[in-house]
Structure formats: C-alpha cells, structure tokens
Amino acid sequence: MEFDSGSAELNQRIAEWLRWDKNEKTLEEVRELARRSEWKVLGDRLLQRLTFGTAGLRGVMQAGFNAMNDLVVIQSAQGLAKYLLQCYPSAEDRSRGVVLGYDGRYNSKRFAELSACVFLHENIPVWLYSRTVATPFVPFAVLELKCLAGIMVTASHNPKEDNGYKVYWTNSAQIIPPHDKNIQTSIMENLEPLESSWNLELLLSDKLNDPYDQMVELYFRKLQANVPQPFIRDYNAASPLRFVYSAMHGVGYPFVVKAFECARLPAVVAVPEQRDPDPEFRTVKFPNPEEGKSSLVLSMQLANETGCDVILANDPDADRLACAEKDAKGEWRVFSGNELGALLGWWAIRCYREQYPDRSLSDCYLIASTVSSKMCRSIANVDGLNFIETLTGFKWMGNKSVELLSQGKTVLFAFEEAIGFMFSPTVLDKDGVSAACHLATMACYLRATSNQSLADKLNELYDIYGFHCTLASYHFCYEPPVMERIFKRIRNMGPARDAQQDENYPQTVGAGRFKIADVRDLTTGYDSSQPDGRAVLPTSKSSQMITFSFENGAVVTLRTSGTEPKIKYYAEMCAQPGQRDWNGSKATLREMVDCIVEELLQPKENNLTPRSD
C-alpha cells in the first residue's frame, strides 16, 4: 500500500502497524484512515503509546499504539515477559508462573488469552481464570500461588468503549516505580510481535492451568475467617435486614452471593437488569457507582418495591463498593467513599478487638490515600493505632502494606475516597466483594446491638472523633494542554514571587477571606510546611496535584485523573471532638470550594464541563 503522510516518523509507524497487526478489523481501520489521508487521526493514534499510569494501561479500544487492541496487548505482554525473565532468570523462579484474569468487557477474554500465549511461548506457566472474575482474585492468586506477576484485563468503571491492563508484581501489589518504567522500557525493546504471540493453539499447553475453583474456595474460606464467628452466629444469621445488590452489569454477583452465604447473611436481592456481565452497560450512563444516585436508580426502585433498607453496589470489576441507606423519612442517602471509609475503619478495629481481645493496638495500622478523609487518622490518634498516608491509588497502599507486614505489623484497613476498601491484607488491593460482606455484617451488628443505622453510627463516630465533612467532585477537561495551562497559572497567582521557590502560589481565596497556610505540590516536589521546602511523599511530573491547607483547618487538593479526562478536587474540614456546629462547617467548606473552582480552575474560561449530578 502506497502512502505519504508528509512525516517520515508517521510513515514509519503506519508501515509498522500494517506489517505487524494480524487483527483484520484494526488492520483495516488503519488502512482505511491512510487511504482517506486522515494523517491527524493517524498521528494521534500512532505517534504516542499507552503508558502505565495510576491503574496500569487503560484506553479506548481501537486501532493504534495509543489504544487498547490485540497488537498493543501483545507488545505489552512481550515486554512484561522479558522483564520478568530479566528479574527472575532461574528456571525455578520461572516455574512460579503468572496469573491472568479478565472482566466481562468486549475483548477482555481475548486480550487475556493473547497475553497467555506470550508467556507460554517463553516457557512461563500460566494460571488463566476460565471465566470472568472480580479483580481482587488476581492479586489474591499471585499471593497464594506465589506467582511472579498477575494481569487483570479490565477498565473498571470506564465507559464501554475502553479496556485496560492492570499489572501486579510478585508481592501481589500493583506495580510502582521502578517496575512500571522498566516494563515500559522492555515493551519498547520488544515491539515486534512474534508469530507465536498470535497463536491461540498455545492455550492447549500443559503449562496452562485454571485456578478458578481452588482460588474461589480459598478466598471465601479466608473471608469467613476474617468475620468474627460470634457476629456470624448471633447477628447475621437472624438479622431482619435485607440488602439490594447491583453488579452494575459487571462480574460481582456470583462472588457477593457466595460471600453472603459464607457469612450467613440474608441473601441479596439482585437488580435483575444489572446482575450479569453486559459489555454494553445498557441501563447506566456511566457504569460507576461512585457517580451516586444517578447510577443507583434501578437499585432504589427495587429496594422501595421489596422493602429493603440498604443498597450495596459494586463497579463492573467488583473492586469498589457503593452503599445507600434509607433514612427515617424514606429518603435514600448515598454514602461517600470517605463516610464508608470511616465506618469500615471503625469496624476493622471492632472486629480485631473481638478476635484478639488481649492484643494491643500499638502495632496496628490504618492507611488512606492523601486525597481521602483524615477521619481514620483521628480514630487512630484517639484509639492508639498508627495511621499512614500515601499517594493516590491503591498501588501505593498495597505496597506500603507489604512493607508493614514484612516488619511484623498488622494492617487492619486501607481505603481511598473513590469507594475503594481493603479490609484485611488477604488481598493487597481494593476489594468490593469482601467490603460488601463486612459492611453488611456491620449493618446487622448495629441493628441487633444498638438499633442503629449506618448513618446513626457515623454520627456517633463524629461525636467521638470529631466531625469530618468532605466535598469531592470533578470537571471534565478533554484537552491536556488546557490542564497544563490551568495548573501553571495556579503556580503563578501569588502577589509576590518568593525567592526560595520557582512558583508563586495563591495566598488566599474568596477575595482574601480564606487564608492559605501551606501548599504542597506533588508535581514539582514543593511543600511549604517542610523545613527544607521539599515534599515527603513521592512526586511525579507526569500528573498534576496541588494541596492547599487553610488557616481554618480546611484541606483542598486539586489533581488530574490518571485514567479519565478529569480535573478532580477533594476538600475536607476537620472539627475537634465535641465541636457541634456541623452545618456551619459544611457551609464554610461549600463556600470555599465554590471560590476555589471559580478562581483557580475558571471553568467558563477553560470550557470545563461539570459533573452531571
């Protein structure tokens, strides 16, 4: 095929694609774009590559090196396989193999099978789940089978057009530096697909095994052991509570059913339209329970019809959990991730004390990401535990957990505000299945022992540990240069340049009413609260993240998403125990956030689209 894009580099990339791709659909996609001289489109798709971000690889499914497709998956698997052999050169290590899982999205199973073929060709045994699984079952299998690595093919709660490739390292936590960069380098050194990489007949190899039955049985045995047996016997089995459950068109339903069975919880009432995997996600605009009431419309209808008081919903790969509860007025309250984090953090301590009444809490840890509520820190301070803050993303909390466990510490709970919860280190990643089981058990316990709802318990925790109110939302921004411009402007808004730093951050918002005490910029590494002006947490120039601490106790973080075209903001006001003007705290925080959005993000000037609900 003859063509000339006017760019030697683009010509080379087009030629490589036409030579390497053996998927007729995506091959024809590039051919047709070249025939129509769509050089701008081809440049966007072929001159950049998907790289490992917050959650591994994630992108739209279409032709191009900057998207998810057969060729990019093969290249990624080839790079990962070579890197594993470099890190683990002995035949004994190689025999430990890798584990692969996939969700119910379009192409997920095929991407997992193509990856399996790459590893089998390198004589690396493969544990490939024979059917769709919840994401937590991949890191769980890495840990239990002592594998070299794990791959989960999923785009979690992204739109139906997307897919992704999440990689877990030998310690069963998601990859962090330097592995992500080293794998990317290895991918670039192994771009040309081997003939064998396309050969699905390799799936007949005796080095391919299905871990499904073994891992499912073991997972639920360990989950059951993590729930105090008196709670199962005395509260769950006899509870009058009923729970509506939505799998959000994903893979969670059979696992949540099994979780409830093993904890003797009442059987869930499943939303039938959303119960089974459906790659079209037909009933929701976004298959993301984090969106709140807009994603739970069918759940609320079913709960109203069946008299259920609590709704539980997973995202499509079942590593996140949302919860809503009907209040005394019959209105539905959707809990935020921060509120659920407070409840589950308290519950993790309650369960630990029940199971180990003679043990001190001094070696126990609660963990949260830096953009999540500090409520767990307040609980830890009062109750004598340890609290650790990490960067955003469970990859950091998982790896911090590995480090603590290796020191003989006890990790009780980790969470992030994006409804991700790790209840015990059985899985070193967020797990929506175990979280559903523990949250339901907590609800049954509260009803039986104190006739409290989840909302009642949350208010009690605020009384004891101090009221924490949070606001978190986002604006869509589809142009990366605009994101860059917004954050560059924020770094140069101050009234006078400080000779000690390159940037010049704002000192107030709201026409001087809200004074900023400290600024931490994890993009540049600056932190005004540190004596040397350097941030303690790791920094990254590849994403934007600035945190403002205000004199009135509010903390507000602005950051770009690692997986979606969004600028996110997270705000929290922390009151002291006994401080009772909760509505005043909420109103002040709302006013501050409105000022920050208008003054710093400038949505109108930058053509930003607010969250729909």
From TrEMBL:
It holds the Pfam family PGM_PMM_III. Its cofactor is Mg(2+). GO terms for cellular component: cytoplasm; nucleus. Residues 50-190, 219-326, 365-463 form the Alpha-D-phosphohexomutase alpha/beta/alpha domain. It is found in: Cytoplasm. One of its GO terms (biological process) is glucose metabolic process. InterPro entries: A-D-PHexomutase_a/b/a-I, A-D-PHexomutase_a/b/a-I/II/III, A-D-PHexomutase_a/b/a-II, A-D-PHexomutase_a/b/a-III, A-D-PHexomutase_C_sf, A-D-PHexomutase_CS, Alpha-D-phosphohexomutase_SF. Gene3D superfamilies: Alpha-D-Glucose-1,6-Bisphosphate, subunit A, domain 3 (3.40.120.10). GO terms for molecular function: magnesium ion binding; phosphopentomutase activity. Its main location: cytoplasm. Keywords: Carbohydrate metabolism, Cytoplasm, Glucose metabolism, Isomerase, Magnesium, Metal-binding, Phosphoprotein. PANTHER family: PHOSPHOGLUCOMUTASE 2B-RELATED (PTHR45745:SF1), PHOSPHOMANNOMUTASE 45A (PTHR45745). Belongs to the phosphohexose mutase family. This is Phosphoglucomutase. It comes from Anopheles merus (Mosquito).
